[in-house]
Design brief:
Strand content: 15-25%
CATH superfamily of the largest domain: HUPs
Distance between the termini: 34 Å
Largest sheet: 11 strands, mixed
Number of strands: 13
Number of domains: 2
Length: 322
């Protein structure tokens, strides 16, 4: 029985290609007529301003839809949906935003699939969804429209929490936190995080959590128990490697005029990341995901699911290329 080997290669950090940086020029915001759903606009509008982007408003008529949703009247007819989107667009245009609006008038049974199809049809760079209801983001993984959209699309999805209709504060993140684990899969979200940090004038925080002897993964727990000294040494080596790895990524981001810093934390991943988002309530979290396979995150499926349940911050889910 041997202790776990450090998985981080400090020389593996790739350069950032400025020519391939995401620009977020077309943002899709699906709306259902509720004021809570409109919470997504408070996130989409500042991004649109930063990138000179077009906000594409979409309403999908749902087959056998409930007449009320989120405690409000639910749009079920084409005429009222078009009038509603026109009203929302008017307010955005008055603030200087470019807006397109589309009503999918043919009733559909799968709203999420229709949203994903519209994202493809209209060359969308980012889908912005408001998650709401009693659990907010805590419910996003279990059967919600937001989860289903992520599973149907290969485009980044930004989840903005909206507890009620009073949520209208502008989205002005001071930090963009990208969680990394030293793998190429995790780095798939780095260009998006760096682009948003630059566009929104925020600090890019590259965070990597290294476990302690007490918080190693279950499959390594027996080894840590029987070989605590060797395991502790290797975890300390992993911390050193993580710091070197983040230093290279930070330098690559700074070379593109992105304010960036690397941060190594020790402990259990979910607890550390959840605490981190609580400490930086004015931030945005970026996570790479295998969206088509059920929101499997960059380091561990259960970690992603539990983090999404516990954080209050907006979360950008970036699909990992297959």
């Amino acid at each position: 029985m041997s202790p776990p080997a450090p998985p981080i290669d400090p020389g593996a950090a790739p350069p950032l290609d400025p020519a391939g940086a995401p620009t977020f020029s077309r943002l899709l915001v699906p709306l259902d007529g509720s004021r809570m759903a409109e919470g997504a606009l408070s996130v989409a509008a500042p991004i649109a301003e930063a990138y000179g982007a077009t906000i594409v408003l979409l309403h999908v008529i749902e087959r056998r839809a409930s007449p009320r949703r989120h405690g409000e009247h639910h749009l079920t007819r084409r005429d009222e949906a078009e009038a509603y989107l026109a009203q929302v667009a008017s307010g955005l245009e008055a603030a200087g935003r470019r807006v397109e609006r589309h009503t999918h008038a043919v009733p559909v049974g799968d709203v999420a699939k229709s949203i994903a199809a519209h994202a493809d049809e209209h060359a969308i760079d980012l889908i912005v969804l408001s998650t709401h209801g009693e659990g907010g983001l805590r419910d996003v993984l279990w059967g919600s429209i937001a989860q289903q959209v992520v599973e149907h699309t290969t485009r980044p999805v930004l989840l903005a929490r909206s507890e009620d209709e009073t949520d209208s504060a502008p989205f002005t993140p001071q930090t963009i936190m990208l969680s990394l684990d030293g793998t190429a899969a995790a780095e798939a979200a780095l260009p998006h995080a760096a682009s948003l940090a630059r566009g929104l004038h925020a600090v890019l925080r590259l965070v990597l959590v290294v476990p302690t002897l007490e918080t190693v993964a279950a499959e390594e727990r027996a080894t840590a128990t029987f070989l605590p000294g060797a395991s502790r040494v290797l975890l300390d080596v992993q911390e050193t490697q993580a710091a070197a790895y983040l230093e290279r990524l930070t330098a690559a981001a700074q070379a593109l005029d992105v304010a960036a810093r690397g941060e190594v934390r020790r402990g259990e991943a979910v607890s550390e990341l959840a605490t981190d988002t609580g400490e930086h309530a004015d931030g945005l979290v970026v996570i790479a995901t295998h969206g088509r396979t059920g929101l499997q995150a960059i380091w561990n499926h259960s970690v992603a699911a539990r983090l999404l349940k516990r954080t209050q911050a907006p979360i950008l889910l970036v699909p990992i290329p297959e």
